[in-house]
């Protein structure tokens, strides 16, 4: 791409990729032979191009003069002007591309990447007893006895997986610890998380950093983010509030890691509340994870 940018000699180069349904995206209209961009069309209803911005740019320092001293979208305000002046060129990506902004898409992207490694650099993938399919394991990670790891698993630096654990289609990030006999499928486990014994997690469960999951819990698709706003009040009917010593998942729900938290207990429902967001595991059209029934409406802030 650097060579392409130097070859055309103008101010900017962007990487583009072909998609099957261009009407869902803003598309790039450019010359097939030179790559010179003529214009951008947002979600076209008739076919004008099937190439979209893949999100990688090389820009000359001259582009800085085009950016005004105010909040500016370079894609929406600067690039169209550069295209009109003939200063912007597109290079088509040779390979796979996808938007991984959502957890489920991130996991799909991980699978594509691991398959690419299998085809191009198979020596980077792990093999051995208990390893199934495409599995990428950092050399500093430790895996116990009688585990089943894979297919489509990535274990980061310092990860510890104890005996009897089953992990499928998951990313486990740096220094996370999965205790014995737990079962994880289609999950993202954040930095320094602790997952207890005999835990089952599935259906795109996402744990932010430093989250602790207690033993013998079932998590079905909650998202647990450490960067959410801090708690301001408890809104659960009949709840009792206390400051816990550490972020935890308890009684079938989930925890959000933060400096200041409020614990809300109402009947059989336990959750962590922060501002107007529901951290109880409730999902639209679904049910509350790990509890007999959803909490009362007043106890579900922001669902």
From TrEMBL:
Transmembrane segments: none annotated. Residues 131-232 form the Mannose-1-phosphate guanyltransferase C-terminal domain. GO terms for molecular function: GTP binding; transferase activity. Pfam families: GMPPB_C, NTP_transferase. Residues 1-111 form the Nucleotidyl transferase domain. It comes from the Eukaryota. The keyword Acetylation does not apply. Keywords: GTP-binding, Nucleotide-binding. SUPFAM superfamilies: Nucleotide-diphospho-sugar transferases. Belongs to the transferase hexapeptide repeat family. This is GDP-mannose pyrophosphorylase B. It comes from Pipistrellus kuhlii. The lineage of its organism: Eukaryota, Metazoa, Chordata, Craniata, Vertebrata.
């Amino acid at each position: 791409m650097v060579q392409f940018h130097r070859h055309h000699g103008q101010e900017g180069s962007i990487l583009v990729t072909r998609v099957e349904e261009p009407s869902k995206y803003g598309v790039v209209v450019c010359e097939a032979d030179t790559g010179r961009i003529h214009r951008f069309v947002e979600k076209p209803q008739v076919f004008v191009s099937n190439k979209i911005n893949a999100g990688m740019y090389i820009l000359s320092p001259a582009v800085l003069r085009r950016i005004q001293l105010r909040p500016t979208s370079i894609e929406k305000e600067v690039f169209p002007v550069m295209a009109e002046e003939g200063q912007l060129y597109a290079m088509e990506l040779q390979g796979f591309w996808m938007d991984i902004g959502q957890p489920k898409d991130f996991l799909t992207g991980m699978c594509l990447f691991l398959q690419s490694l299998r085809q191009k650099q198979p020596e980077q993938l792990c093999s051995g007893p208990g390893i199934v399919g495409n599995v990428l394991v950092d050399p500093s990670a430790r895996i116990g006895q009688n585990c089943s790891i894979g297919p489509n698993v990535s274990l980061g630096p310092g990860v510890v997986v104890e005996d009897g654990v089953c992990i499928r289609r998951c990313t486990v990030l740096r220094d996370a610890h999965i205790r014995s006999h737990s079962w994880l499928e289609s999950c993202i486990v954040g930095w320094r998380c602790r997952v207890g014994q005999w835990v089952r997690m599935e259906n795109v469960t996402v744990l932010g950093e430093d989250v602790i999951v207690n033993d013998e819990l079932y998590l079905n698709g909650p998202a647990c983010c450490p960067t959410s706003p801090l708690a301001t009040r408890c809104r659960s009917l009949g709840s009792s509030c206390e400051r816990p010593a550490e972020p935890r998942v308890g009684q079938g729900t989930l925890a959000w890691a933060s400096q200041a938290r409020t614990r809300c207990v109402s009947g059989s429902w336990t959750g962590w509340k922060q501002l107007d967001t529901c951290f109880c595991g409730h999902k639209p059209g679904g049910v509350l994870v790990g509890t007999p029934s959803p909490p009362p409406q007043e106890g579900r802030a922001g669902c």
